[in-house]
Amino acid sequence: MELVVVLDNIRSTYNVGAILRTAEGFGASEIVFSGYTPRVHDNALLPHLRAKLDKEIHKTALGAEDMLKITFTDDIANKLAKFKAAGYQIIGLENNINDDRLIKINSPELRSRLSDKVVLILGEEVHGISHELYDLIDLFLEIPMRGKKESFNVSVAAGISMYAIMSL
C-alpha cells in the first residue's frame, strides 16, 4: 500500500507535527501541505517565521519532518486531480456526512474498497474537508464514535485512519 497524506487547512502546528510523526511511522511516501496549514522548512517564509514554525512543528514531529518527502501546493484541487490521473484513490476523512461514498473505518468491506495507492485528505480541525474538494474524493472514511463527542482530534483521527489503511 502506498500512502500519501494531505494536510489541508490544519491550523495547529502541534497537530501538524504529530501527523508527520505518525505518517513517517506508517511509511507514508509523501506529505502534501495545502491551504493555511503551517508548513515546515518553507523557504518562501521570512527566516524568523520559518524558524518559529519549524521549532513548533518539531516539538511533536521529533525529527519526522526531516525524514519525509514534503511538498507544498497552492492549488489542492489540481494536485488531487494529478494524483487521480496517476492512479491514486482519493480518500477523505470525515464524519457526520450523508454521502453514498461514506464507509466506516471498521467495516469489513473497507479492504475491498481500497486501492493500492491512496491519498488520505485531512481537513480543518473543526469544519473538516472543504466541500469544494468533495467531487474529487472517491471514498470517505468515518471513525465510529461511541462517546458523546462527535469527533477526535485531527492528529488522533489521522493515526487511527493510517493504521486502518496500512493494516489491510
**Global outline:** globular
DSSP helical segment count: 5
> Which whole number gives the mean pLDDT?
96
State the domain count: 1
Query: Helicity, in percent?
Result: 25-40%
User: So what's the CATH class?
Assistant: Alpha Beta
Question: Can you name the CATH architecture?
Answer: 3-Layer(aba) Sandwich
Please compute the radius of gyration using only Cα atoms: 15 Å
Which residues form runs of ≥5 with pLDDT under 50?
none
CATH topology name, in short, is: Alpha/beta knot
Q: Looking across the biggest beta sheet, what order are the strands in? A: 3-2-1-6-4-7-5
What is the H/E order?
A: EHEHEHEEHEEH
CATH superfamily: SPOUT methyltransferase, trefoil knot domain
The major beta sheet can be summarized as:
7 strands, parallel
Number of strands: 7
**Strand residue content:** 15-25%
> What is the structural class?
alpha/beta
Distance between the termini: 9 Å
